[in-house]
Amino acid sequence: MQEIALHLLDIAQNAVAAGARRISACLETGADGRLLVLTVEDDGPGMTCREAASAVDPFYTSRATRNVGLGLPLLQMAARETGGSFHIDTAPGKGTVVRAEFVVASMDCPPIGDMGGAVAALMGCNPDLEIRYTRRQENRQFSVDTRQLRRALGEVSLADVRVIRWIRQYIEENTREMDRPRWPLPTGRVSSRSNGTGGMDPT
Fold first, then answer.
1. CA atoms within 13 A on the CB side of 24
2. How confident is the model at residue 201 (pLDDT cuts 50, 70, 90)?
3. Domains and CATH numbers, the chain
4. Contacts by 12-17 with C-beta closer than 8 Å and gap 24+?
5. How many CB atoms lie within 10 A of CB 125?
6. What is the pLDDT of residue 183?
7. pLDDT digits (tens, 9 = 90+) for 105-143
8. Which of 119, 9, 10 is nearest to 73 (CA)?
9. What is the Cα–Cα distance from 119 to 164, expressed in whole angstroms?
10. Which of 8, 9, 66, 117 has the fewest Cβ atoms surrounding its Cβ within 10 A?
11. Average pLDDT of the residues in 151-165
12. Better-predicted residue by pLDDT, 199 or 69
């Protein structure tokens, strides 16, 4: 997988296959811009320490304990190849939290990719689940939540192609707005009289 968006989709779908009913995903840019952190949390059955270790082993083939594919091993490898880290916090009956940190400056850091399309597909394919996606950067963030969408839509299903299209566009537009630089405003007030500083009157 070459995009962080596809990693998110794969991990979330694995959680659904394991029986999760609530999934919360967050993509956060660290305060200094050095790290890109993906966190996916679910309320599924959880895993023992041994099962969690097996889940990140690409050569582990048994599906007796949890229905997982190569999603976790690939995400772990992608994060660590950038010099980042990978963690799983899980316990039987307690759900699972997966956290992957990517070093942005690394040549091996994958692009975010089509996050709007990935989240829209996840929500549209699982219209009865509680799914929340949050994008956070410094002091700015936005979220899209299926519970709020269902209240607003009434009888219209999240699987409706118009809703899926709207979710994708909403995420794309808010991501562009968040990525837009916010230049600091000048401290002085603009003056029509020249003061030798390009028209800026600091008084």
1. 9
2. very low
3. 4-179 (3.30.565.10)
4. 12/40, 12/42, 12/122, 12/131, 13/71, 13/122, 14/67, 14/68, 14/69, 14/71, 14/72, 15/40, 15/42, 15/44, 15/96, 16/126, 16/129, 17/67, 17/68
5. 15
6. 59
7. 999 999 999 999 999 999 999 999 999 999 999 889 999
8. 10
9. 9
10. 117
11. 96
12. 69
Tokens found for residue 17: 């296959």
Tokens linked to 155: 């009888």
Question: Which two three-digit tokens encode residue 7?
Answer: 């990693």
CB 112 within 8 A of CB 102: no
